[in-house]
Amino acid sequence: MTTIRLLAFGILAIVLNGCATLSETECASGNWYQVGYQDGKFGRDSDYVLNHESACIEYGVRLNRDQYEQGRQKGLEVYCTGHNGFQHGVKASQANQNCTVAFPEYLASYKDGLFSRHENLQVHLDELMREHEILRQAIRRIEDEKEKERLNLELDDIDEQINDTKSQISRVNYLLDMYR
């Protein structure tokens, strides 16, 4: 029983330690511009500074928000590129709000990525619909019940793919509408 408790406390310690965004050494170094730059390079919101502040307060260190924000803005220049915007659009993920206003190339490329995703999904949906119709016609002509059952299972799978693809198209349309 004590082994289980020790293991549980060990895991809890690792989880709680993982919550701190900065170590004592990083807090003490006071290189807030660099910390902000790194956060900007990852596209993090300005509120992310609160995580650093709470980590550093534990060590009695105050964060310089002006330096942090200057660094974060420089880091966002690295993150908010047209390439990243396009990649977010192609994946139909949410646009990074830190990039949509100050970095027009990011937003334009994001929209291009969404359009590309939409076109690809539409082509895929058309293919699925053709497969669906071919299977339905085959099921009508086949008399062997086992073969009909197999084809019906295949048709069910196609129908699931059609519904999933339509759902993805709806998500892309929703995202496109957000940025018109």
From TrEMBL:
Residues 1-20 form the signal peptide. The lineage of its organism: Bacteria, Pseudomonadati, Pseudomonadota, Gammaproteobacteria, Kangiellales. This is Lipoprotein. Keywords: Coiled coil, Signal. Residues 118-168 form a coiled coil. InterPro entries: DUF2799 (IPR021242). Pfam families: DUF2799.
